[in-house]
Amino acid sequence: MPVTVSTCVLDGTPSAPHACRAFVSTALAAHPRLDDLALIASELVANSVRHSFSRLPGGRVSVRVIEGAGCDGTAFAGVKVTDDGSSTRPLVRRRVELSESGYGLALVAALADRWGHYSVDNKRTVWAAVRT
């Protein structure tokens, strides 16, 4: 059963990904896949700040760090990033030559063992988990 280790709420501003990375690094300081989890979380927050309604004045992004065991007993850790929703769905973009952006979810998909998204009450959550 997953257990929330820690939660933080950030303003939907360009500084949020950096603050998220620091938060995850503190919450999971001794975790063997800390670097992967911190990068995953900061990419998810960057997407929220760029693509969701959280970027609007007063917008917020919530980050939860979780640890637990799956149904098969395999240990995992993960992050859940909840934003104010948007009119689009999270999508891994195909590689675009010379593009300076658009690789966030591709990184998440490459680093995470599982990831996904869901919406509830106009809020969107994107989550990712890694085996430990």
Automatic annotation (TrEMBL):
SUPFAM superfamilies the record matches: ATPase domain of HSP90 chaperone/DNA topoisomerase II/histidine kinase
Gene3D superfamilies to which the protein is assigned, alphabetical: Histidine kinase-like ATPase, C-terminal domain
Molecular function GO terms recorded: protein serine/threonine kinase activity
Coiled-coil intervals: none
InterPro entries xref list: Anti-sigma-factor_SerPK (IPR050267), HATPase_C_sf (IPR036890), HATPase_dom (IPR003594)
Keywords attached to this entry: Kinase, Serine/threonine-protein kinase, Transferase
Histidine kinase/HSP90-like ATPase domain ranges (all copies): 18-127
Pfam families: HATPase_c_2
Keyword Transferase: yes
PANTHER family linked to this entry: ANTI-SIGMA-F FACTOR RSBW, ANTI-SIGMA-F FACTOR RSBW-RELATED
Protein name, per record: Anti-sigma regulatory factor (Ser/Thr protein kinase)
Lineage start: Bacteria, Bacillati, Actinomycetota, Actinomycetes, Streptosporangiales
